[in-house]
Amino acid sequence: MTTTYANLIDGEMVTTSNTFEVVNPANEEVVGLVPSCGKDELDRAVAAARRAFKTWKKTSAEERQKVVMGISAAIKENADELFRLLTTEQGKPHAQAQQEIYGAAGLAAAQSTLTLDDVINQDDDTRLSRTRRVPVGVVGGIVPWNFPVMMAIQKIVPALISGCTIVLKPSPFTPLTTLRIAELIKDVVPAGTVNIITGPDELGPMITEHPDIDKITFTGSTATGKKIMEGAAGDLKRITLELGGNDASIVLPDADVEAVAQQLFWSSFSNAGQICVAAKRIYIHEDIYDDLSKAIAEYAKTVVVGDGSQQGTGVGPIQNKKQFDRVCELIQDAKDNGYQFLTGGEVDPSGTGYYVPITILDNPPEDARIVAEEQFGPVMPLMKFGSVEEAIERANNSEYGLAGAVWTKDTDKGVEIAEQLETGTVWINEFLHISPLAPFGGHKQSGIGAEYGIDGLKEFTYAQVITVKRDAVV
Ligand code: NAD
């Protein structure tokens, strides 16, 4: 069934005469029609956000917290409907969609209590100097298709908590659940504080370059991140960029093969590998390489690839045709170069739905495209290493610096290795854990700035220092 969705502008659900289609990646059927906004709708949304900012910036921490808790409750109370819709548009299996929906509600609740308190720099007979954090104003939020709900909430919530208002653009591939949430929170958030508008990629630069938007918070590819930086340079907008990654896991020889095989598998194949911080290169010590690679490949054969709405599916389809074609191209390149496959590799391009079988490569060279590039699909290269120094050097040999992991019984050694990895996050003996209260961000071409925690909140504000000269004669 095709439902027509509306946008949230200035507290009202509004439609446009132009719409575009959203497709279920599991069967390529059209599942929703959404407004195709251009400059006029954007101008209206920004004007509403600007008006709302005048009063919202003066609200107390308690009032902001109440609104954010209302968002959290609206998501939680409607979680059943929302996770099913999320699977329909994004493709991820129901259990993973549930995690995202409850995760988004939990993130909102956890961040609702964050406050940016004043800092006293000097307090003596001569001077009182105080730093306060002032909300920057109207924020433009731009979101990708892999975790559409989580990414939307992680932009809306800190914007509201810090006293900003926001105009958010979901990915044109996955706007439906976000628009349903917009409807659910319409009367929870004061009119104009949260505006959600949909449109093609072309709407993105209009947001980036809009003269009445003060800051851009973007999650997406490094290529788009660079364009955003350029677009935002016109009026020196503040930017936070969460971009791509090519995250390495390093498995030391003391790791228990049976215990880590499944964990390594899911660190790479959750959400069909479409996670910025998924393990995309796994370096295994040569002493356990044969046993561990075999165990991972054997486990992979037990995981079902299919429609995420069906019970038993572990890995869903790729979210869209463009990404499906890219992943197929990387697999073909690996075949053309004669790299060895432990499992997978056979894609049926004529089938319905964007399915790629779980594909694991056996020790391809470091310069293979499938190793050097972010795959963003259910494809994982396993590589053998001899010394820890070599593993660290190979892990760091990337233009990206988002996250990484070390697997070892010796956690001190794990920390020692972590401190040498050039990434924003390193996990030891776990993966994909992101705390709502700790900064999350990338080094190198994985991004600029951070989201989450106090550091993330600060990016929605600027520092104002007020000094009072106490011994002045005036
Ligand atoms: P994308 O860059 O193609 O699109 C992201 C968003 O940007 C979409 O809403 C799109 O419409 C919009 N957009 C496209 N062109 C634009 C332009 N010129 N100006 C402004 N906006 C524009 O990314 P994607 O394919 O949706 O997402 C996948 C990428 O996102 C991967 O590289 C992944 O690693 C990255 N990602 C990073 C994080 C992180 O936190 N670091 C999290 C999730 C995804």
From TrEMBL:
Q: Superkingdom, according to UniProt?
A: Bacteria
Q: Which InterPro entries match?
A: Ald_DH/histidinol_DH, Ald_DH_C, Ald_DH_CS_CYS, Ald_DH_CS_GLU, Ald_DH_N, Aldehyde_DH_dom, Aldehyde_DH_NAD(P), LUC3-like
- Pfam families the UniProt entry points to: Aldedh (PF00171)
Query: What does the UniProt keyword field contain?
Result: Oxidoreductase
The name of this protein is: Aldehyde dehydrogenase
**Membership in a protein family:** Belongs to the aldehyde dehydrogenase family.
Residue ranges annotated for the Aldehyde dehydrogenase domain, each copy included: 16-465
Q: Which PROSITE patterns match?
A: ALDEHYDE_DEHYDR_CYS, ALDEHYDE_DEHYDR_GLU
Carries keyword Glycosyltransferase?
Answer: no
Active site positions: 242
